Amino acid sequence: MAENQDGLEKYGQPEELQDKEKSHIQLLTIIGEVEGHECLAANSKTTKYEHVLPMLAAVEENEEIHGLLVMINTVGGDVESGLAIAEMIASISKPSVSLVLGGSHSIGVPLAVSTDYSFIVPTGTMMIHPVRMTGLIIGVAQTFDYFQKIQDRISGFIVEHSRIHKERLMRLMLETGELTKDVGSVLVGPQAVQEGIIDEVGGISEAYKKLRELMGEETGSAD
């Protein structure tokens, strides 16, 4: 039982379920906070990149896996780890689809657009804001240049993997009239599609249908 729970905790899909149903689709859940190089509190829901990256490498190598479905409900988290997962998903040669459930905030935005096609449920939200600085920051030009480079990496990835223009993305990031005591924007379902970040409003059935389409399978056809 412990082994089965561990498999579910790490990968979001019990391995025995995939074996039993002989599914050609690998599920990946990105939930809670994307954990970086330091462990978060034990009572926090986290996505651990050291578990996700090897699983994604295995998806690329496994000939029995034909597609990847990424389900996202995250508050964001570590920038480097989130971008590493996003780049890994984007580099997989097999078809991939993402589905935003609940929220895909902060570094969750690059994760949501890293797949070949993206969905968001009608009530799903995406929070877009600049990289935040925490702790004591040395006030020198090099420090701000470094944070600007981080910001450019994030915005560049989003623009490259979606339909939004960089100028519009930056305006959403720097919006001052929407978040209390902060800058940024919150997009709900259809708004994320209208802005060109997400491809379509839909749920799990639409996500599976699109993924099977990308895999070259006709809906309802026999294996």
Structure, explained:
Helix content is 42%, strand content 22%. The model is unreliable at 1-5 and 218-223 (pLDDT under 50). It has 223 residues and is an alpha/beta fold. Helix 3 (49-61) packs parallel to helix 4. It is built from nine helices and eight strands. The protein has a six-stranded parallel beta sheet with strand order 2-1-3-4-5-8, with helices on both faces.
Task: Produce a short descriptive summary.
With 223 residues, the protein is of the alpha/beta class. It is built from nine helices and eight strands. A six-stranded parallel sheet has the order 2-1-3-4-5-8, with helices on both faces. Strands 6-7 form a two-stranded antiparallel sheet.
Main sheet record: 6 strands, parallel
Number of strands: 8
Strand content: 15-25%
Residue-averaged pLDDT: 83
Question: What is the succession of H and E elements?
Answer: HHEEHEHEHEEHHEHEH
Radius of gyration, in Å, reads 18 Å
Q: Give the number of helices.
A: 9
The outline comes out as globular
Terminal CA distance: 31 Å
* Poorly predicted runs of 5 or more residues: 1-5, 218-223
Strand order of the largest sheet: 2-1-3-4-5-8
- In which range does the helix fraction lie? 40-55%
Q: Class by helix and strand content?
A: alpha/beta
